Amino acid sequence: MAHYVMVIDTRTCVGCHSCTVACRVHNELPVDMIYNPVTTVGPTGVFPNLHMVHIPLLCMHCENTPCVDACPTGASQQRSDGIVWVDEKKCVGCKACVMACPYGARVTNKEKGTVQKCDFCMDRVDKGNIPRCVQTCHQKARIFGDLDDPESEVSKLINKEHVVRLLDELGTKPNVYYIYGLEAQNR
Q1: N vs C: which end of the chain shows fewer Cβ within 10 Å?
Q2: For residue 9, what are the β-bridge partners?
Q3: By C-alpha distance, which of 79, 73, 34 is closest to 61?
Q4: Is residue 108 part of a domain?
Q5: Does a structural domain hold residue 110?
Q6: For residue 50, with 0-12 CB atoms within 10 Å meaning exposed, 13-18 middle and 19 or more buried, which class applies?
Q7: φ, ψ of residue 181 in degrees (nearest 5)
Q8: Domain containing 182: what range?
Q9: Residue 171: which pLDDT band, with cuts at 50, 70 and 90?
Q10: Residue with more model confidence, 115 or 187
Q11: Residue 57: inside a domain
Q12: How many structural domains comprise the chain?
């Protein structure tokens, strides 16, 4: 069985928000909903040595899922391949999962009265495709694949690069890894 993860290389992300737009279009999201915002840190430093880092955020598809554990109806679920998703037919919009998620990755759809989130475009993944945000990233800052495959690009990057996981100290074991640095920006 696959173990899907995403690696985000902040050294090459330029903060263009193509991933955010592609996600919104693919998921037909209302104007007030975003599954994967891009936040910018900076500029930092002193002229002429200024730097900015763009950090795309999304559901971390944690191995230890406080959101799934908090859901009283079983709407929040985790598949055997690691993808965490919401069954909208079971969701009553109570927002227990929203409060349990330490990453702020869940959003309320006011029109539907449900909670929604990034699901790694599982409809596409199930057909052998990559998530829309990965497909649209012209800088190739997002890489998606099977961590259990030692030949996959994600496995190689995680084993070769210095990667970090957001709020790793909470023990949620996020399945989104970040390569953080300024190397590419200084070239």
Answers
A1: C
A2: 179
A3: 79
A4: no
A5: no
A6: exposed
A7: 170, 175
A8: 4-64+118-186
A9: very high
A10: 115
A11: yes
A12: 1
Whether 184 has a pLDDT exceeding 50, the answer reads no
Closest CA to 141 of 54, 37, 45: 54
Q: Which residues pair with 39 in a beta bridge?
A: 55
Residue whose token pair is 């998530």: 131
Pairing of strands 84-86, 163-164: unpaired
DSSP code at position 169:
G
C-alpha to C-alpha distance for 68 and 129, rounded to whole angstroms: 25
Give tens-digit pLDDT for 20-78.
999 999 999 998 899 999 999 999 899 999 889 999 999 999 999 999 999 999 999 99
For residue range 68-104, list pLDDT tens digits in order. Answer: 999 999 999 999 999 999 999 999 999 999 999 999 9
CATH of the domain at 126: 3.30.70.20
Q: Residue 182 has what pLDDT?
A: 59
> If you search the block for the tokens 């430093």, which residue do you land on?
45
Distance CA 80, CA 59 (A): 17
The answer to whether the beta carbons of residues 144 and 132 sit under 8 Å apart is no
Q: How far is CA 99 from CA 13, 78, 105, in A?
A: 29, 18, 10
Q: Which pair of tokens denotes residue 75?
A: 């709407």
Residue 157 structure tokens: 């990057």
Beta bridge partners of 51: 44
Residue 97 counted as domain residue: no
